[in-house]
Amino acid sequence: MPMHQRGPTPTGPAPVIALHCSGAGAAQWRQLGEVLGARYELVTPEHYGCDGVGPWTGERAFALADEAVRTIEIIDRSDCEVHLVGHSYGGGVALRAAAERPNRIASLTLYEPSAFHLLKIMGARGAVALAEIRAIATQIDEAVITGDYRGGVSSFVDYWGGPGAWAALRPSVQAALTRWTPKAPLDFRALIDEPTTASAYTGLHFPALIMRGEHAPAPTRLIAEKLSTLMPAGRVVVIAGAGHMGPLTHASEVNATIERHIEKSHPKFWQADLSATESRLDRPGPHLGEETRGRGSPSRSLCMCDAHHAPTQADADLCQIKDLRAVQLLVRQ
Prior knowledge:
- By secondary structure, the protein is an alpha/beta fold.
- It folds into 2 domains: 14-120 and 195-293, Alpha/Beta hydrolase fold, catalytic domain (Rossmann fold), CATH 3.40.50.1820; 123-191 and 324-332, no CATH class.
- It contains 13 helices and 7 strands.
- A 7-stranded parallel β-sheet has the order 2-1-3-4-5-6-7, sandwiched between helices.
- α4 packs antiparallel against α5.
- The longest helix is centred in the middle third of the chain and has 24 residues, at 123-146.
- The chain is globular.
């Protein structure tokens, strides 16, 4: 199925708007388009900083609302409700768009959305996770101010991909990420300073699926868990063996999960599915509300990244290698 960066036609398949992560582009969702086929029209707007969009105008302080404008325009031009999909930064943008147009959203599917503003309301664990994010943001801020784009983006890649991930990238991939680097401070600041309150998410009643990797970093793991409790029809699915770059390293499983969620978002499906989920949640067990995908049939699981069950070094090394390959694939596309 072809991908488009403009809005859907007035009539035709239901639109699915998919928003990419920082430093990526529309091509991130190529395989999702193949999975959805002709039943849906995949619309993949790009963010400021991409070659096709250009840099932020600089006319005022950048905010997440500015990034969400293109997505909201697509929603407003559609003659039907839309399905929203977002990964990482794209997940944060999708949340902002959904909050501004809650009555136009058929379903929401997010993979580790970087809604860092929510960490401020999560007590001690949230404070530690936010400090972690602020530290990497400060590194890249200072690098951009001094012109050391390469040094800044290497810290960014090593944070999400693991120590040594940057050094292992091909020179062409490093060059592409270095060109994107001036946008990174704007992304971090917009996500951290986003003014949408937690209570706003409690009013979003459409079906919402929040995915995270089994080896998700603490900040995005906490955010996924929090969102699933705030949104009335929200739930979490854990992708077994995946890290933050799961939409690329585990594309088949992630895309199949996105497709299932969109298909089940029809009222006759999701109301029944929600009732069944609520029935299961009444039973005792670890991580209520979470499902693990990728190891046989879906089931709730005490995830390896939980504080009481840390992953082994071998697990972490494997996840790092897979995320590194994802970064290379993402930039090459």
